[in-house]
Amino acid sequence: MSQLFYTTFGGQRRQQGLSLIEVMVGMLIGLFILGGMVTLFFGNQQTYRYNEELSRLQENSRFATEILQRHLRMAGHVGCLTLQEINGGSPISKGESIVDSPQIQIEGMTAVQAFQYSAASPGVVGDAGKTAVLGSDVVTLRYGQGASTTLDTDTGVPTKTPSIVIRDNALGFKQGEVIVMADCKTAGLARISNTPASGNSVALEFKKATNYNLKDGFDGITFASDLRIMRMANVSFFIGPSTERITNRQGNAFNSLYLASEGFNGRAVADEIIEGVVDMVVEYGVPNASGSDEADAYKPLASITDWNDVRAVKVTLLLSSVDDKVVSDAQSVTFNGNTYTDHRMYTTVSTTVSLRRTF
């Protein structure tokens, strides 16, 4: 019996744990696996950010090109006439400005006109309460917007008429807006001085008043019954600091492309339309020989002496990702005499548009 107990007890094995070396090896393997997972996570995160910024940059480039082309193609449009044929007997003459309302900026009445921004001469940028990049071009385009309405009757408009009645106000004309009235013989400009109603048979008045018109009605102008009435667009493009997001994720300011337009009562309103537009270079196509219809050379703003000579406009934009640290290697990009060295993603886009016949 004693022998049996000894044999049974002596045959049992003692439970053993992991040695220190085994624990350390297991921890090391775990660290390798964890490190790989962390590396994979950050790698995927960086790839995601890269692809996201690339997609946004491509989208902004396409949108910038499209909106610039859209407005440039319309520059100078006033129906079947040209801007130079706007009659001086209009309540607003093309060579005059309205007292206390310089924002209208119709002096000269050319399809395209530009100036170099400065703090001393902010122009429409200052009127809109914005700032632009010092020394950059502010490009203004003028045209009658495509949608139009007609008269309520077929009798035309006799001279010195201070008001008209349009078929309907589906376009939503408002007090203070500048409209262009044109048939195929003459064209005129006026600012709406009353508050137009909605619906059909709506009266539009063009009476003399501060911030409205220089005279009552159209002096010496008679319009035919096929008269078209449309808004007069007076829009400007410029580059300025963002006022929406202000800074990026790294706390740095960045530039955007703005579109300014004349609002009601002559006040300019500027909208930030595309983020990350670093700079803009504008060149103006002019003919070598006077009277030529073709743009033979593209010149900067300082070389333009007569805006009626401009036949085409070439716009080149430098765009970047809004956020920094998108690419691993620092970029060195030179554009318009400036060099940018950071970790942003950059691209350039360019478009050239021939203007309508405005001469």
UniProtKB/TrEMBL annotation:
The chain crosses the membrane at residues 20-42. One of its GO terms (biological process) is type IV pilus assembly. InterPro entries: N_methyl_site (IPR012902), PilW (IPR032092). Keywords: Membrane, Transmembrane, Transmembrane helix. Pfam families: N_methyl, PilW. It comes from the Bacteria. The keyword Zinc does not apply. The keyword Nucleus does not apply. This is PilW family protein. The lineage of its organism: Bacteria, Pseudomonadati, Pseudomonadota, Betaproteobacteria, Rhodocyclales.
